[in-house]
Automatic annotation (TrEMBL):
Keyword Lyase: yes
GO MF, one example: lyase activity
Keyword line: Lyase, Nickel
Name listed for the protein in its UniProt record: Putative nickel insertion protein
Organism of origin: Thermodesulforhabdus norvegica
HAMAP family the UniProt entry points to: LarC (MF_01074)
Cell cycle in keyword set: no
Gene3D superfamilies given in the database record: Transcriptional regulatory protein pf0864 domain like
Highest taxon of source: Bacteria
Family in the record: Belongs to the LarC family.
Amino acid sequence: MLIAYCDCFSGVSGDMFLGALIDVGVERRELVDMVQSVLPGDEFRLRVRREKRGALCGSRVMVESFSERRRNYKDIREAIDRAELPDWVKSKAARVFLKLAEAEAKIHGIPVEDVHFHELGAVDTIVDVIGVVAGLYLLGVKRLYASLLPMGRGFIECEHGVIPNPSPATLEILRGIPVEGRDTNAELVTPTGAALIATLCSSYGSLPSMVVNRVGYGVGAREEHHPPNLFRLIVGEALRESAVEEDLLLVETTVDDMTPQIFSHLFDDLLSQGALDLWVSPVVMKKNRPGWVISILVQPGLRDVVMELLFSETTTSGVRYYNVKRVSLPRSHSTVKTPWGEIRIKRFCLPDGSTRVYPEYEDCLKAARENKVPFEKVYRSVLAILENEP
């Protein structure tokens, strides 16, 4: 299985990501052809040149725009739907733009459909997003990973004026994704870069086990050399298709004086912040008191967020955490059509090559409630459809 790792040691933007894809060997002409399915060719020109940052050389992408047109989210979504592109490219690109639009809608207090702004509608953003998704498709990458994302500080200027760094849109997009602070006033991660990483990557942390066969560097516009303003894409074959190993944190605390009703609220908050899994175990504590161990499995970068929630929302006075490894079966997602609408499904690949399939609980529950039918009927119907697949 071909996988790729986004090494964001100096941040990531849409043009840097696109430059790295070209640097690993994706043909510029093929990318332009796919972008032109969404954007008329007379509206842009894609230029690529080799540049150095520090001692390293990479590909810098520059988009020349010949259009003054401003597009909103609806315009872009309709253009993607009409485009003659592979379904995977259309689906992923649409999700990236939706993530951008949802972030802008939330921070400006407007409906997603009304989002109409320079950053989303700009020609270069459309080229970057379609180009990156198309590039991954052309490479044949099946799974994408990323390092922790570095965040600057201070203030940055944009079309809306002076705003804090990282930008509000970037932080909104990166909810639940591990980041780390850097002592710099530079904008290291742009909203477009954040949306691409958040939408396309399945895991964050250290480099996954792989046999490396290609490495590409995308050059950023800032001429910084310490560290060099580059984005690195590492492409290779996964060592194991039967399992994916991750370095995670297990955060725990023990309480014996908290009302159980708080657990529901606490779990909702933890999941919204990006917890991967959580559970409560009954224990007998010192002084023979019954209590609970609250356990939360998270990406390493979420440690402080989770500890803050535990201290503020529970009665605990201490939290412990451990480094753990999780081995997961490779999974993929798709949808099936039912009499009650489309239902997402999860497929897990077992070591012997067989698959295990599960309907998505939330989708089945929503369909059952909206159509006033029993949940079991929807769930069993999906399983029956899957059993009859060729």
